[in-house]
Amino acid sequence: MACGEGYGSDVLARTAADVVGVDANPEAHEHARLRYRRPNLRFERNLVETFSTPADAVVFLQTIEHLQDPTAVLEHFRSLLSASETAGTVFVSTPNVLTLAPAGASRSDNPWHVHEYRASEFEQLCRGTFSSVQLHGLFHARKLRVHELALRAGWDSVHSRLRLTRPFYDRFTPAISASDFALRAPGEADLDRALDFVAVCTP
After folding, report:
1. What residues make up the domain containing 77?
2. Domain tally for the chain?
3. pTM here?
């Protein structure tokens, strides 16, 4: 849902039996349709609120913070699961306002965000629709964790003085991979320090 230019749908289609990427934006839909082609992958131009194909799983990443009525959308996703032959799962992610917002601010300066959540607020939102919600936090790991610690130690002031900013990040950024992030449960880490939250929701 809200698949954007489609690369996430393509990643899911590497292992899923069948994937539908849904997005209302005509340019994003056309890009996805032309760029990512697999026998088990298709793209549909539609609103997440009105897409009606039953699903075993719904994946909705980094979008719920943009919605005026997130509860209505979560209820719609649950209805898609109810129509499927299996119990189904909804995966929803959103940024953590405590790490997204500047220090001392109550929210970020992103003008497109309608709601920004703390862990407890996001979990409460999901529990209003689903009977089971497992909340996880996304954290830096490996290279990104080292970089995070370097920034705390003053790396930003060093690379600019040495004129290393562009050469360093031209090499560092493309080297980032999924292994440089870690998904952790509440018992494994303080979710208030997470970059993003991922809720695993079942009816």
Report:
1. 54-139+182-202
2. 1
3. 0.91
